[in-house]
């Protein structure tokens, strides 16, 4: 009878341990899912920011080219007229 009581106690203890481990696993899975969703959102934001950066770099390049063209035209006008116009 004593052996059966010890076995039952051990079994109850193991079942409680198993239950605790299952709960811990569920909590970790929930955290993992939450982190994965946050990473997806951040990846989407990163992609959007990269696109905006590309657009800004393109705009800067256009402005630089326009500025260089304006400088060249101004220099040509200066050379033609012999003075700054």
By secondary-structure content and strand pairing, the structural class works out as mainly alpha
Unreliably modeled segments = none
Determine the oligomeric state from the structure.
single chain
**Helical percentage:** over 70%
State the distance separating the first and last CA atoms: 113 Å
Helical stretch tally: 1
Strand content: under 5%
Whole-angstrom Rg: 36 Å
Shape: rod-shaped
Give, in order, the helices and strands: H
Largest sheet: none
Average pLDDT taken over every residue: 92
By DSSP, the count of extended strands is: 0
Give an overview in words.
The protein has one helix spanning 2-81. The chain is mainly α and 85 residues long. The longest helix has 80 residues, at 2-81. The termini are far apart.
Short description:
The chain is mainly α and 85 residues long. Helices cover 94% and strands 0% of the residues.
Keywords:
85 residues, mainly alpha, 1 helix
Secondary-structure blueprint:
Elements: H1 2-81
């Amino acid at each position: 009878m004593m052996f059966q009581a010890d076995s039952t106690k051990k079994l109850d203890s193991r079942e409680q341990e198993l239950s605790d481990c299952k709960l811990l696993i569920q909590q970790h899975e929930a955290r993992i899912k939450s982190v994965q969703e946050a990473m997806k959102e951040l990846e989407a934001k990163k992609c959007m920011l990269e696109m905006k950066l590309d657009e800004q770099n393109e705009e800067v390049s256009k402005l630089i080219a326009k500025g260089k063209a304006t400088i060249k035209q101004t220099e040509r006008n200066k050379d033609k007229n012999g003075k700054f116009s």
